[in-house]
Each structure stands twice: as C-alpha cells, then as structure tokens.
Amino acid sequence: MLGEFSYCNPTKLHFGKGALRFLPSELAKYGKSVVLIYGGGSIKKNGIYEQVIEILNKSGKTVTEIAGVMPNPTRKKLEEGIEIARRANADLLLAVGGGSVCDYAKALSVSVHCKEDAWEKYYLRFEEPSCEIVPVGCVLTMAGTGSEMNAGAVITDSDAKLKIGHVFASESVMPRFSLLDPTFTMSLPRYQMVAGIYDIFNHICEQYFSGEDDNTSDYIAEGLMRSLLHSSRAAIKDMHDYEARSNIMWTATWALNTLIACGKSTDWMVHMLGQAVGAYTDATHGMTLAAVSLPYYRHIMPYGLEKFKRFAVNVWDIDQAGKSDEQVAKEGLAAMEKWMNELGLVTKISSLGANEEMIEGIADAVLVMKGGYKVLDRGEIVEILKESL
What pLDDT sits at residue 345? Predict the structure, then answer.
C-alpha cells in the first residue's frame, strides 16, 4: 500500500430497526433551534415525519421547516434555504430523507454564515468554508449516496446546466450523527431502489479503478461489491427482505465514507459524465451513472487492464484459464452488464431524455478528473457520450 494519507471520520452512526430512538439523546447536544429539511413529502405518507416531529417537540426544540428539496437540489433552492436558516438562527440542520436531502443540508451548513455567494465560493472556485459551520444530523430514508457519513454535497445550477459536487475538506461538514433504519427504505419504489444500488456500486468502482499497487483498500472494495451483488439480487426478488436491505444500506455507507479511498488516487469520471447528463435531463442520479458506465469502462479498460482483469476474477468469478488478460477483462464487464440488466437499470442516456443535439453541451459541462487510468480529452468525452446514446 504505497499511498500516504490521514483519515478521520467523526460521524456517529446508529444503525438498525428502531434507530430513531437515539434521536432525543443526539438532539440534547444542540441548541433550541432546529431546521427540519426534507423532500417531496414521502416522509409524511410513510409516517416518518410524524415520528420525527413528535421527538423534536418532546425535546423542546423550536422547529423551522425547509420542504420540497428536489432529487437534484438546485442553487435557487439552496439560496432559499439560506434565508430560512438565517432567520431561524439555526443551531442544527436535521435532514430527513435520501442523499439529496443530506447533500442539501451540508451545502446549507457551510452557507448560512457565509458572507459571499455560496455557489460562487464553493462550487465555482471550490474554496473551503472560512465561516461558522452549522452542524448537520441525518435520518436516512434511502440507501445509495453515502451522504450520511461524508462531507460531499452536490448542487445543480439549472440555468447554467451545471451539476457540481464539492467534497469539503473540513471534518466539520460531515454529519455529526446519522440514524440508519433499513425499514425506512422499504417504501421506496423499485426504480429508486435499483438506482440507489447502482449508485453504491459505482462509488466503489470510482475508487477501485485507480492505482496499481497492492492496496488493502481494493480488497475491502471487492468484498463490498460482492456483498452488494448478493444483496441486490435478493432485494429485487423480495423488496421487503430486511437482511438484504440492511446489507445494502450498510454497504452504501462504507462505499463512500472515504475509507476505501485511503491510499488511492480515485477516478470519478463516471460521476462527472453522469452529473453532466443529469444537469441536462434532471434524471435520477444512479440511472445517469448506469447509462454512461459501460461505454466509459470499455474505453479505459486497455489503460488499466490488470485491474479490470482482477475485477473480473475477484468480483465476477470469471474463469481465466486459457484466456488472455483482455478476454478475462471483457468477460468481467459483460457479467457486470448482465447484472445491470437483471436489476432493470437504464443503460442508455437516450432513455433518460438526452439526445444527439445535447451531446456538445453535455461534454462542455463535464469536469475532467485525473485520478483514473486515462485522462480524457474532449473528443473522447464526446465519443463516450455518443456511445452512451
């Protein structure tokens, strides 16, 4: 393991059935003003909102709400939330929902006391916060992003058609606590469940497909991927299989809490491609990743052949006897495609609303990362996007 790193993750997790019972003790650590953040109202239909409100009231908190956080939170919504949180003099931001709600809360946490334009500072100049950061807590209702245990926050400028993620360097941006009850994910539609599963899988891939040394992080990543493959197949057979759903939820957290990035350069080009598609189509995040993954991985495979061969053998159990490294690697990607089809994932960006006229604009919106096996030029980005159609 050749990489050098520092590692710290301060988020406290409460996991399992009835995890909400830990909310009162966590709330007691913060001041009276709580800003409750949630999405389109599903938590009111499934009863989670009522449970959370009851706990907040019994804890003596003054509650201000920010509702309607969309699946791809926008700059405009962030600006709206900043004003609400400032007026409330927020002591804690409590996100109840999926990854987008958690992302939004973290973006808000560094923006409430920021004296500059938050979008300009954090998402265009990629600066770090120099102001007070409002603490965040999460009650997770969807497994996928890993946002409950990291410092990342993705925001979209709809007018500029830019969807940008900022992984903040400060540990203070990470949620102070997160409550993970797998039963809270049971009411999700199948489409959202499988999109979340692929988001998890690709988070692991983005970190795995980098570096050439013998790295412990890669062994952990392979175990997480194998667990996810097993649990995903069980979950699509029975969406109320608690064991499968709990394993998926736990894998999601470890896929992106920075542990398996230790000692790695990491890639993230699938996310850059998928987020650019999402900025143009407003499609579900996990599906945008699925739609661009195979063309991208087939394109970079020759540059990281040894790792793609290892992926085929250690994750997909491909028999390598009598085959070239390239044959083995290709069979691994074919097995991945078969699994994606089994789950019902979208594998073409045209199915998400993208068309050939958008390709040049989408390509312009792609941020080029340098941690993977091939640094893409613009021509390659256009080629991959066209193949994704």
Answer: 98
Residue ending a domain, choose from 127, 154, 185: 185
In Å, how far are 98, 157, 171, 341, 353 from 178, measured between CA atoms? 12, 27, 15, 32, 34
- CB of 373 closer than 8 Å to CB of 266: no
pLDDT, tens only, 322-360:
999 999 999 999 999 999 999 999 999 999 999 999 999
Where would I find the beta strands (DSSP E) of 191-328? Answer: none
Largest CA distance in the chain: 69
Domain that holds residue 220: 190-388
Report the chain's mean pLDDT, rounded to a whole number. Answer: 97
157 and 232 share one domain: no
Indicate whether 7 belongs to any domain.
no
- Spatial separation of the C-alpha atoms in residues 342 and 97, rounded to whole Å: 27
Instruction: Locate 38 and state its tokens.
Output: 């949630």
- pLDDT tens digits, one per residue of 286-299: 999 999 999 999 99
Pair 297, 318 in one domain: yes
Q: How many domains does the chain have?
A: 2
Q: Are residues 234 and 377 in the same domain?
A: yes
For the segment 267-292, the average pLDDT, to the nearest whole number, is 97
Tell me if 59 sits within 8 A of 32, measured CB to CB: no
Cα(115)–Cα(28) distance, integer angstroms: 29
Residue whose C-alpha is closest to residue 258's, from 148, 178, 130, 141: 148
Supply 340's token pair: 């994606």
Phi/psi of residue 274, nearest 5 degrees: -65, -40
DSSP letters along 109-178, please?
HTTTT-SS-HIIIIIIS-PPP-S----EEEEE-S-SS-GGGS-EEEEEETTTTEEEEEE-S-GGGS-SEE
Looking at the structure, tell me whether residues 224 and 370 fall in a common domain.
yes
